């Protein structure tokens, strides 16, 4: 790879010095190399370059308390650094990132007339911004700063090898100094930000994010693939630990979303295509054919006073019966339907996969409203937004895959989402918990916690789904409350009641009479005659295997990212972690951001969360997403590729390689040359590494800079 | 034992348990188990799925979860001298269901290997060795079986060493190679005289 770099990249201009640098002995040449580097000069139109031999680099070594100083000889590193070419000043400090530490840098830059700063400390992920600011404050261009990571990649790894880590630190500093001597002034570009935002997914998280953005005066597109907003929370009966009715606290928010003038709600819609970058995303939305027009859509078609008013006449006449997904299949629905009476928007939707187009609904709807259009087609709508929040939520893990618990084999084994619907007053049984097999009221109910969670077998999820303990406690409370004499048995490994008032809730439910058995359920068997179930487990606290007969089993099934998450995340260029949840920019310090600028995460799509955490995360994401919009413009890292037009042959091979569609061929002065759209370029270097003519310069990672770093390592740095 | 001076022996024994981890723990035991069993006994989180799955547990005092715990803590003596170690039927139900993807059955087998190295083996297991040595079968055929086989239209003896006794020699060669028969004979003699 090095060889390739040397031959392809160097060949163009500076071949003389770098080529000569190859022989081992020529350390002097290496010295010459930086000096001879004026090649940077032509391209340096944008910024100033240090003149040959004039580089004066300051090296600042951080102890990081004992994180670094505990595993290496700082004195030795300092002495060795003094001998590195171009180094004009070396100092060390206990905490370089502290204010006094930064003052050391500040003073040295001024007093020593430094042209570049090297800080040997932790990782640029942590403190590059800190030291860039310090460099800038001292009067240098902030990009005249280079960091040598002697902590994360050195002292932490080689904690027990003092000599080795000292040597490695010296090497790291040599490499950083070599680059610092060649750094050029760079000036970040700003691009304007479209003052609109988009939220994908309208569960409680997406709704909260959209409401916050709207309240901050930002026009927000809220995209929901289902017919109504509300998401999972609208399927729940009550919420822990306060036992609020879920619908009661959710519907006001749903109504607010429907009414907010700043929210453009698009239900029964999906993100189809995404182009652009922070501040300027062009998003194509597929509005799935709904078959029913809203009053506004009807108006637009010239049907004044028409459109769906949610009367439900169509539903009454529809002859097609299908299982209702909202009720987890436990209730029928028609081909034209709404999920539940409180849907927002209250517009009926036709399931065209089952509609027989008999036209009865059209007749029932009548000539006044004329809301139904059986020939409706998908529409594509393009919108431009500045920032995006993903709030795509979760699905239930297909718990029938764990065959030992008998879901879908035994009628009386249900999931907790089914339990929510059965115990809910608006659910299929009007809130009466019954056994699916015979409609009888169960008097002994077993709750299987960690069903598919905390499971490393590959058939299951390795993580804790985080809210099952709490909702199972709530379920226990609900059956004690609703069915006198009914006993809930909770089979658990650990009760994770970690939130505010959660442990108190656990206390309360135990006080109410719920029985807790510490043992993961090994298997469940059914009596084929009575359909009663026997739960087998180990009461680990009694150290006794037990077989317990119950009437109903509720599996607290694991959760997994919603079905379309992978497709959606790829559209926005967001990564996911090993378990499929979307990857945040930093798990602690930037949990709502992603590695794609301008795209943020809210709620469970980033990892399991209960409702309070989801809402908190949504508000965090909304705040983060509003910042670029309120600033009006964003600064882009000036690491983009640059075409050296006199060398460009216009072959266009780079254009197809670019993963960000940032490159294009243009006509200039009668020649075809490549042009970079700087705002789209992420500085990945794919084009620069490939260009056969060496006509692409990667700012801040130029060929001379990289070669000097390699030389500094391979040839040493002593004079 | 000073603190239990004057108390009955049973209480002494119970109180001794409090110091199990400090005094009896042998980290090498866990390492050896890992090597022999080729599984990850140190990852057990004591959920009880194994004991709940175990067909032996409801019929005996065998608690596989206890053995996993002893593995984690390195309680070598306690594990190897517990006669329950030999009550596993090796049905592998626990291995099928373990959420941590451990193979507890293989850990038990590893413990049995280590116990056997210390001559801790129940005599009935050793007699099985003798039976295999002499007939090629742990449970040799008998007349009841033979009658049943005939009734089902099968040969009186199965097509194993029973039908081809000349191959018993091969089995003996294998057992002799590992010194298993000699070992069994010696231990049985020591115990039964």
Highlighted features:
heterodimer; A: about 725 residues; alpha/beta; Rossmann fold; five-stranded parallel β-sheet; 22 helices; about 30% helix; disordered N terminus; B: about 190 residues; Fumarate Reductase Iron-sulfur Protein, Chain B, domain 2; 2 domains; about 0% strand
Short overview:
With about 725 residues, chain A is an alpha/beta fold. Chain A starts with a helix and ends with a helix.
The radius of gyration of chain B is 21 Å
Please summarize the sheet with the most strands of chain B: none
Distance between the termini of chain B: 36 Å
Total strand segments of chain B: 0
Shape of chain A: globular
Q: Could you explain the architecture of this structure?
A:
- By secondary structure, chain A is of the alpha/beta class.
- Chain A folds into four domains: 2-188, 3-Layer(aba) Sandwich (Rossmann fold); 189-288 and 379-393 and 565-632, FAD/NAD(P)-binding domain (3-Layer(bba) Sandwich); 290-377, no CATH class; 397-560, 3-Layer(bba) Sandwich (FAD/NAD(P)-binding domain), CATH 3.50.50.
- Chain A is built from 22 helices and 34 strands.
- A five-stranded parallel sheet of chain A has the order 10-7-6-18-29. In chain A, strands 20-27-21-22-23 form a five-stranded parallel sheet. A four-stranded parallel sheet of chain A has the order 2-1-3-4, with helices on both faces.
- The longest helix of chain A has 21 residues, at 611-631.
- The model of chain A is unreliable at 1-47 (pLDDT under 50).
- Chain B is mainly alpha-helical and 193 residues long.
- Chain B folds into two domains: 19-117, Orthogonal Bundle (Fumarate Reductase Iron-sulfur Protein, Chain B, domain 2), CATH 1.10.1060; 123-192, no CATH class.
- Chain B is 56% helix and 0% strand.
- The A-B interface holds A 404, 450, 454-458, 460, 493, 518-523, 536-540, 543, 545-547 and B 43, 45-54, 57-58, 63, 65-66, 93, 97-101.
């Amino acid at each position: 790879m090095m060889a390739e770099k040397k031959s392809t990249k160097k060949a163009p201009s500076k071949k003389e010095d770098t080529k000569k640098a190859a022989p081992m002995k020529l350390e002097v040449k290496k010295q010459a190399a930086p000096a001879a580097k004026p090649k940077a000069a032509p391209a340096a139109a944008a910024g100033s370059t240090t003149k040959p031999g004039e580089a004066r680099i300051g090296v600042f070594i951080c102890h990081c308390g004992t994180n670094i100083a505990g595993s290496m000889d700082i004195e030795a590193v300092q002495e060795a650094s003094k001998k590195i070419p171009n180094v004009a000043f070396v100092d060390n400090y206990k905490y370089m990132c502290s204010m006094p530490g930064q003052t050391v840098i500040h003073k040295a830059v001024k007093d020593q007339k430094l042209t570049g700063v090297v800080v040997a400390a932790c990782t640029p992920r942590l403190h590059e911004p800190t030291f860039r600011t310090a460099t800038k404050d001292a009067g240098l261009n902030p990009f005249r700063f280079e960091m040598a990571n002697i902590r994360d990649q050195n002292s932490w790894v080689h904690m027990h090898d003092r000599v080795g880590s000292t040597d490695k630190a010296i090497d790291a500093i040599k490499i950083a100094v070599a680059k610092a001597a060649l750094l050029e002034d760079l000036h970040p570009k700003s691009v304007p930000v479209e003052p609109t935002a988009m939220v994908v997914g309208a569960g409680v998280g997406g709704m909260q994010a959209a409401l916050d953005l709207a309240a901050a005066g930002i026009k927000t597109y809220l995209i929901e693939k289902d017919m109504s907003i509300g998401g999972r929370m609208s399927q729940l009966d009550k919420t822990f630990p306060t036992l609020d009715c879920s619908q009661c606290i959710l519907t006001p928010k749903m109504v607010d979303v429907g009414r907010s003038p700043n929210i453009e709600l698009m239900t029964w819609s999906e993100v189809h295509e995404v182009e652009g970058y922070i501040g300027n995303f062009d998003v194509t939305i597929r509005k799935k054919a709904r078959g029913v027009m809203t009053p506004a859509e009807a108006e637009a078609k010239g049907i004044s006073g028409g459109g769906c008013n949610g009367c439900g006449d169509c539903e009454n006449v529809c002859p097609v019966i299908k299982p209702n997904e909202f009720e987890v299949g436990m209730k029928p629905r028609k081909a034209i339907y709404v999920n539940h009476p409180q849907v927002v928007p209250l517009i009926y939707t036709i399931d065209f996969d089952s509609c027989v187009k008999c036209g009865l609904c059209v007749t029932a709807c009548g000539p006044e409203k004329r809301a139904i259009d059986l020939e409706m087609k998908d529409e594509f709508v393009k919108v431009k937004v500045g920032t995006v929040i993903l709030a795509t939520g979760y699905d239930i893990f297909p718990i029938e895959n764990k065959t030992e618990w008998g879901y879908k084999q035994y009628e009386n084994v249900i999931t907790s989402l089914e339990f929510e619907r059965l115990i809910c007053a608006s659910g299929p049984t009007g809130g009466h918990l019954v056994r699916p097999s015979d409609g009888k009221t169960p008097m002994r109910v077993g709750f299987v916690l960690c069903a598919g969670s905390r499971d490393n077998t590959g058939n299951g999820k390795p993580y804790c789904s985080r809210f099952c303990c709490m909702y199972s406690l709530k379920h226990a409370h609900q059956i004690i409350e609703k069915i006198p004499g009914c006993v809930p048995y909770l089979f658990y490994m650990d009760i994770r009641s970690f939130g505010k008032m959660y442990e108190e809730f656990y206390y309360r439910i135990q006080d109410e009479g719920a029985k807790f058995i510490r043992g993961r359920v090994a298997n469940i068997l059914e009596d084929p005659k009575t359909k009663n179930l026997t739960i087998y487990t180990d009461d680990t606290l009694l150290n006794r295997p037990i077989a317990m007969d119950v009437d109903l089993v509720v599996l607290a099934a694991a959760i997994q990212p919603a079905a379309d998450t992978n497709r959606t995340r790829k559209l926005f260029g967001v990564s996911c972690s090993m378990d499929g949840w979307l990857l945040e920019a930093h798990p602690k310090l930037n949990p709502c951001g992603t590695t794609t600028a301008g795209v943020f995460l809210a709620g469970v799509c980033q990892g399991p969360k209960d409702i309070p955490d989801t809402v908190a995360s949504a508000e965090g994401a909304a705040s983060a997403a509003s910042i670029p919009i309120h600033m009006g413009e964003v600064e882009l890292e000036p690491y983009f590729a640059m075409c050296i037009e006199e060398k460009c042959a216009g072959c266009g091979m780079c254009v197809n390689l670019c993963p960000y569609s940032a490159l294009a061929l243009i006509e200039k002065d009668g020649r075809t040359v490549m042009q970079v759209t700087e705002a789209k370029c992420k500085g990945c270097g794919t084009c620069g590494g490939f260009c056969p003519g060496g006509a692409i310069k990667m700012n801040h990672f130029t060929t001379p800079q990289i070669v000097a770093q390699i030389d500094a390592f391979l040839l040493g740095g002593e004079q | 034992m000073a603190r239990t001076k004057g108390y009955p022996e049973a209480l002494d024994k119970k109180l001794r348990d409090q110091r199990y981890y400090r005094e009896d723990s042998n980290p090498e035991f866990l390492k050896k188990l890992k090597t022999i069993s080729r599984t990850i006994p140190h990852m057990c989180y004591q959920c009880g799925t194994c004991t709940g799955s175990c067909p032996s547990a409801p019929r005996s005092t065998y608690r596989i979860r206890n053995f996993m715990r002893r593995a984690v803590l390195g309680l070598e003596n306690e594990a190897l001298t517990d006669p329950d170690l030999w009550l596993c039927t090796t049905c592998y139900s626990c291995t099928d269901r373990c959420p941590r993807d451990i193979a507890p059955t293989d850990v038990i087998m590893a413990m049995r290997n280590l116990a056997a190295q210390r001559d801790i083996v129940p005599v009935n297991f050793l007699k099985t060795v003798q039976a295999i040595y002499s007939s090629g079968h742990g449970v040799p055929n008998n007349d009841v079986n033979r009658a049943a086989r005939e009734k089902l239209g099968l040969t009186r003896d199965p097509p194993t060493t029973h039908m081809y006794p000349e191959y018993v020699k091969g089995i003996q060669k294998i057992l002799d190679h590992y010194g298993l028969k000699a070992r069994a004979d010696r231990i049985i003699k020591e115990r039964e005289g």
